[in-house]
């Protein structure tokens, strides 16, 4: 009798866990499939095949950098992130590893931080990366929106070909090992 009771309790617990997992999954999918936010007039979010928008952002020293002038003749992987974004932080070691593997003629990784310079510097002291980091302030017309992120979620990554045309866009973090396959132009 006790065995049957225990099995019954295990079955009920498993059922409850299944219901909770289903609820979590639906909520997660709703976040991933969040509706597009209102895009300000004059902002045209890029799509695959479009030219890289003419964006100039400051580096960590405040010097302006035009995105289309970075790593001439090489593809760019532009990763939009923030120090307060958990999934962004989790994928950074994978992006750093990928960037190191590229050498001088592979894909150039560039981080676009939607954050304050102080928060980014503090973060990079704890989690250093070797690829360039540029800054922008989050908002309805930040760099990620121009690059096609109309949902306002992070991380957001764009692969730009050597011809400076958008190849593909990704909303959400990279799984381990995914970035290398995804970034093949």
Automatic annotation (TrEMBL):
SUPFAM superfamilies: Thioredoxin-like
GO BP terms in the entry: cytochrome complex assembly
Cellular compartments annotated: Cell envelope
Name of the protein: Alkyl hydroperoxide reductase
GO cellular component, one term: cell envelope
Keywords on record: Cytochrome c-type biogenesis, Redox-active center
Domain Thioredoxin: 46-185
UniProt GO molecular function: disulfide oxidoreductase activity
PROSITE patterns assigned to the protein according to its UniProt record, in alphabetical order: THIOREDOXIN_1, THIOREDOXIN_2
The keyword Metal-binding belongs to this UniProt entry's keyword annotation: no
Gene3D superfamilies in the cross-refs: Glutaredoxin
InterPro entries (alphabetical): Redoxin, Thioredoxin-like_sf, Thioredoxin_CS, Thioredoxin_domain, Thioredoxin_ResA/DsbE_sf
Organism from which the protein derives: Pseudoxanthomonas taiwanensis
């Amino acid at each position: 009798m006790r065995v049957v009771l225990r099995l019954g309790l295990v079955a009920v617990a498993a059922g409850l866990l299944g219901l909770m997992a289903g609820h979590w999954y639906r909520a997660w999918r709703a976040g991933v499939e969040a509706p597009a936010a209102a895009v300000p007039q004059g902002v045209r979010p890029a799509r695959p095949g479009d030219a890289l928008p003419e964006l100039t952002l400051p580096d960590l020293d405040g010097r302006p950098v035009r995105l289309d002038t970075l790593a001439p003749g090489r593809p760019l992987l532009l990763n939009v992130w923030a120090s307060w974004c958990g999934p962004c932080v989790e994928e950074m070691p994978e992006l750093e590893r990928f960037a190191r593997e590229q050498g001088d003629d592979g894909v150039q990784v560039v981080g676009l931080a939607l954050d304050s310079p102080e928060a980014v510097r503090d973060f990079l002291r704890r989690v250093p990366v070797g690829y360039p980091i540029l800054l922008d302030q989050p908002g309805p017309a930040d760099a990620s929106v121009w690059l096609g992120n109309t949902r306002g979620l992070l991380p957001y990554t764009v692969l730009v070909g050597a011809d400076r045309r958008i190849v593909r866009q990704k909303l959400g973090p990279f799984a381990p090992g995914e970035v290398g396959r995804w970034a093949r132009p």
